Amino acid sequence: MSDIFLCFVDNFAAKNLREHQMIFKHIIPIIYFSSQLKKITLSIFLIYIISHQVNYANQDLIINKIHISGNKLFSTQKIISVLDIHSGEIFSREKLNNNIFNILHLYEKYGYYLAEILPPEVIPCSDGDKLDIFIRIMENQKLIIDSISFRNNRYYNDKRLKAMIGSKQASTFNLQQLYQDMQTICEQYAEKGYPFCSVNIDTIAIYNDKLSLCFDIQENGLTRMCAFQYQGNEITKAKTINKMLRLNKDEIYKESKVRAGEKYLQAKPYISKACIRPLDNKNILISITESKMNNIYGMLGYKSSQENLSFSEKLFGFFNVSFLNLFGTDRSFFLYWKKLQKHSSLTKVQYYEPFIFNYPLSAEVELFRKVTDTLYVNTGLKFSCAYNDRNYNKYAMLFNIEHILPGSGRPLLIDFSRTYKKGIGVELNISTIDYPLNPRAGTHYLGRYIFNWSINDKNEKVQEQRIEVSIAHNIEIFRNNVVYMKMSGKNISSTSKKIPVYELYYLGGYDDVRGFLDDQFCGFRLGYLNLEYRWLLTQKSRIFLFTDWGYYKSDDKERKDLFSIGFGLRLQTVIGLLGLDYAVSHSNGKWENPLNGIVHFNIQTEF
User: Fold this and answer.
1) Closest-CA residue to 184 (of 168, 164, 157, 155)
2) In this structure, is residue 518 part of a structural domain?
3) I need a labelling partner for 443 at 20 to 30 A (CA). Which of 32, 46, 255, 469 fits?
4) Strand ranges, E, within 169-314
5) Residue 429, strand partner residues
6) For 508, left (φ over 0), alpha (ψ -120 to 50), or beta?
7) Extended beta strands in 78-180, E state
8) Which band of pLDDT confidence, cut at 50, 70 and 90, is reported for residue 20?
9) Structural domain contains residue 296
10) pLDDT surpasses 90 at 454
């Protein structure tokens, strides 16, 4: 009887890893035996094979160790982390099959597109309950771009196209950069009147570690805006839309100008959505979705318990009524009223004219009357004329005339005579935000300078300068999560030794530092910071956490410790847009009791 030999045969057969087909190594005992015991040992062999396969299939093997070799660019720990298979886990052939490509994606991310992974070896340990995994990596070299060429390009020559893309000759090839280059070429063509341009990869040739690229550009003809078609404008007149967009007939299509016009339309409070797109090389479709043209927001209360007051004295609160897009012409009319104390109120009436003599000039007129607690009455007229540039930024000239009278209180609490004031100023208003109510990105800049001169009944002349600056910025850190920050500052410099109370700025309340009463503080210099973390629910709704900080300085006081924290929401409801802010304030070195926090509430209704 001849000797019996036990050996291991690897029946591994694998196709390309990128075809997702792998067959792992099994240990199959094969017994060579003498011819005299052939029939008997064959039966024993078959029984052994069947029983071994059943036991192996039913047994959950534990991964003992993962061995990585050939890796120089990344550490073994990094590769195992990307593989997402660890020692102590139950071995899964399917998981190993799928996760092995994570390693390839890691190398591709850093430009190693020629990296290879040899079929993994799975070998059981001697105790039979565990196994080791062996993975061998061949990193190879990065792909270097040897040449870049273009086909079918007529408007741009090869030299101009090579200059505008990020992929350069003799640089490392990057697949993401390639996609970005294709997008860049399309954008540049759209800017020059070719919105239907398409870019594809004609050929990619690889020889050793060198790569040759060829882009196929289909320009698809020059587009001229010969005719405009309108959709959705039930109230807004077509000629009004044309004036706002400033698109001329037979003008060559320009992508940046069209997108800026689209953004400007959507910034209008009576337009919820706007889309401008070319139908072909001659026709442009302007589609808008209109909202309600009028809205009102505010809060109104009635002091029914105070019977000694007249009906008008019992009313308190504020409201702002807006009549937008009058007769479909983008003209607007506003009415504002505010009364939070018995003897204090503010009333304003505004009118907005969007086009003067069909030029991109707008005008706004405001009449106001402010009564402050029997101290003084301020009545005035404000006028502004603004130019809107191609990017819809506004540059305005400001004019104002005011008449200040002592209040009805006797004796006079502040000593001043009847005063007449005139002023002139400039304003710069620049906005890059993407949507006015719930912006995800962009910045809004507002700067204003005003020079005033006044004279009173005593023939005393005073000159003052006002500087006001505001910057609001939005950053979307991840989907529907936005950080909003606003910084504002105001300052008055005057030839008067003491600036009268009617000239001061007011601070506190819903518009600046929440958690304090409206207009609780006043001074000739103030600043405040608003920081919000917003979770956007819909286009108009959001929930947010906020913190506010305020500073002001007057002739006899300076405060730097005005601080508040809170939360709020803006919720689109059936009756309108609900606004609710709750804040707890901190001042004089101590926090307010949360039960005494201030709730700022308002609702905006369209009709």
Assistant:
1) 164
2) yes
3) 255
4) 198-207, 210-218, 224-225, 227-231, 251-252, 271-278, 283-290, 294-302
5) 394, 446
6) left
7) 116-117, 121-124, 130-138, 144-151
8) very low
9) no
10) yes
Q: Which of 195, 358, 269, 251 is nearest to 540 (CA)?
A: 269
Total domains in the chain come to 4
Of 290, 313, 339, the domain-final residue: 290
Is residue 539 a contact partner of residue 489, using CB atoms and an 8 Å limit? no
Alpha carbon distances (Å) from 508 to 446, 527, 561: 20, 11, 13
pTM: 0.74
Q: Which residues contact 118 (CB under 8 A, 6 or more apart)?
A: 135, 136, 137, 138
Q: Are 303 and 317 in contact (CB under 8 A)?
A: no
Q: Which residues contact 159 (CB under 8 A, 6 or more apart)?
A: none
**Residue range of the domain that includes 184:** 144-218
Q: Are strands 315-326 and 294-302 parallel, antiparallel or unpaired?
A: antiparallel
**pLDDT tens digits, one per residue of 400-431:** 999 998 876 655 556 667 899 999 999 999 99
Cβ 130 vs Cβ 150: under 8 Å: no
- What is the distance between the alpha carbons of residues 241 and 261, in angstroms, rounded to a whole number? 10
Domain boundary residue, one of 184, 199, 218: 218
Domain presence at residue 121? yes
**Predicted local confidence at residue 302, as pLDDT:** 61
- Angle at which helices 255-267 and 238-245 pack, to 10 degrees? 120
pLDDT in tens, 476-487: 999 999 999 999
In a domain, 495, yes or no: no
Note whether 104 and 175 are same-domain residues: no
CB atoms within 10 A of CB 413: 13
Q: Are residues 134 and 9 in the same domain?
A: yes
> Helix or strand or coil: residue 183?
helix
Average pLDDT for 47-63: 52
Q: Tell me, what's the pLDDT at 227? A: 95
* Pair 242, 130 in one domain: no
Sequence-distant (≥ 6) Cβ neighbours of residue 449 within 8 angstroms? 425, 426, 427, 465, 466, 467, 468
Q: Which DSSP category does 13 fall into? A: -
CATH number of the domain encompassing residue 286 = 3.10.20.310
